[in-house]
Amino acid sequence: MKLLKDVYCLVDDLRIISNFDYSEELENVWFSVVIDDQGVQNRTSIYQKISDNNGGKQFCLALNLDCDTVTEALLQDICSFFFLLNYQHISAKPVVVLPGEEEVNNSLLSEKLNDVMKRQGLKEALYLNVQDELNLYSTFTDGDKENFRQLLKHKYSAPINLIHKGIIFVHIKDSSAISDVVSACSEAELNLKETQPELYYLLEENKALADNVHQLEDSVSFMQERLTHQNDYLAFIRSNNEAKEIQAFYNKQYEVLPLWYKRFGHVLKFLMRK
Amino acid sequence: MTGPAFTILTHCYYGLENIVEIISKVSASYHTNVLINCPFPSHTALKDVLVPDNFILRKSPNVGKDIGGKLVLLDTFMKLDLSSKYLVFVHDKKSPHLATGEQWFKDLLRIIEPTNISQILSEFEKDSSIGIVATKSAIKDEYDVKAKKYLSNNGDILLKLQEKYQVNPNDYRYIAGTMFWVRTELILNFFKKFHPLKVREELEYGNVMDSCSGTFTHSWERMLTWLVTAQGYKIKGI
């Protein structure tokens, strides 16, 4: 199933991800593992569990941290997550969700993290701020199901220029909530398709093109990297090729000899049938 | 059931195909952990190669060439709390600037040929003072004892690193190409004190060379051996 909008399911407990049935491929649904004060304590165990899920669903981190208490060692540990194969990257940038409400804290936290990432050769992260007014954020428990539906309804009745913007973030407490979230989103989208088919079609096209752009940006980034390295190697080979040394050795040892000496050598070789 | 005797830490810059084939042969004969790092971005290359499920994969930007990749894998090894008596560092070295580059790579890879592995394991078992086993021809020495200085562009950086990390070996030989077997505890003694990713921050971005001036990347190529010899262990060439 392909949803029109990106949906990030924020999870505190990794069992939610491991219990999730991956039989149905849900496009545009992402898991975001919350790292808060408790997550900081358990970060190694989170890393180990996520690492087991090597080929599984892509995920990203949701950093709910006070920037004053964040240490460099913690930021390095966060970078380790970005090296995992299933960490979500968009346009070659690792995605980081910021669920915190304080804008200043989020901005300082992202600055600190970018600094450590740069030293690891990583591009700046793509920060998704949950509190951005264009985004939709909700917690999802059984009691909140109807509330979530209403929020979606409200989202899809916004003016056209706002509908295609924004991301849906849902804080979920158990794995069964994922299918409820997805069905509520598809319900809202179906309703939009029936009531405003042109708009739905445009949103669908817009989403497909945006995804395509991200993939192309990934490829461009990869190609640029390869091209730079190949240019470096070519320049190095041109200036330091061992063949040049061999040629210089040949010139010094043989080429400088007088012609009569070389000719005499040829005659000798001929006589010796070599 | 006992854990694996050794863990192979492999950095693949040129693509997974060849190295996965070589390592699969080893892991078919021996119980081993296999950790592979690929450069990022390179997602398309990863998708196209069939990698055994038990291989642990990582992707990281090209910082510090194979040394940076191996540090990412050491971080992974430590974070996953893996254990094995020995670590084996390998990578898909090409050295296109050397006329003998291909032969050099083949020589370095001798350490993971199944026929040589039992010999290496028995060398370690026989002599507890051996810390590193590598291809004999890869053991180099750039230290001029009389002049008390390094005969390479990396001399100044090496002196700084030695002082910073207090690594002072009596034996200045090192394994060129950074492909060798090492006792795990000796490597971890150092990296438990100095986080591998913190060390990685010092390394240069891209395919740096040390032909004109010294680099931290090439200096760490030497340091990785000296971490071990500075603890009083010796190098064995095969």
Entry summary:
The complex is a heterodimer of chains A (274) and B (238). Chain A has 274 residues and is of the alpha/beta class.
Estimate the helix proportion of chain B, in percent.
Answer: 25-40%
Mean pLDDT rating of chain A? 85
Mean pLDDT of chain B: 87
The largest β sheet of chain A comes out as: 8 strands, mixed
| Spatial strand sequence of the major β-sheet of chain B | 3-2-1-4-10-5-11
C-alpha Rg of chain A (nearest Å): 29 Å
* SSE pattern of chain A, N- to C-terminal: EHEHHEHEEHEEHHEHHHH
The fraction of residues in strands of chain A falls at 15-25%
Distance between the termini of chain A: 76 Å
Q: Of all protein chain pairs, which has the greatest interface, and how many residues does each chain bring to it? A: A-B, 37 and 39 residues
User: How would you classify the quaternary structure?
Assistant: heterodimer
Q: Give the topology string of chain B: H per helix, E per strand.
A: EHEHEHEHHEEEEHEEHHHE
Note the topology.
The complex is a heterodimer of chains A (274) and B (238).
Chain A: E1 2-11, H1 15-18, E2 27-35, H2 37-41, H3 43-52, E3 59-63, H4 72-82, E4 89-90, E5 93-98, H5 103-119, E6 126-129, E7 136-140, H6 145-156, H7 160-163, E8 168-172, H8 176-195, H9 197-240, H10 242-255, H11 259-271
Parallel strand pairs in A: 1-2, 1-8, 2-3, 3-5, 5-6, 7-8
Antiparallel strand pairs in A: 4-5
Helix pairs in contact in A: 4-5, 6-8, 8-9
Chain B: E1 6-11, H1 17-29, E2 32-39, H2 43-48, E3 55-60, H3 65-79, E4 86-91, H4 101-108, H5 114-126, E5 130-134, E6 139-141, E7 143-144, E8 149-150, H6 155-165, E9 173-175, E10 180-183, H7 184-191, H8 196-200, H9 216-229, E11 234-237
Parallel strand pairs in B: 1-2, 1-4, 2-3, 5-11
Antiparallel strand pairs in B: 4-10, 5-10, 6-9, 7-8
Helix pairs in contact in B: 6-9
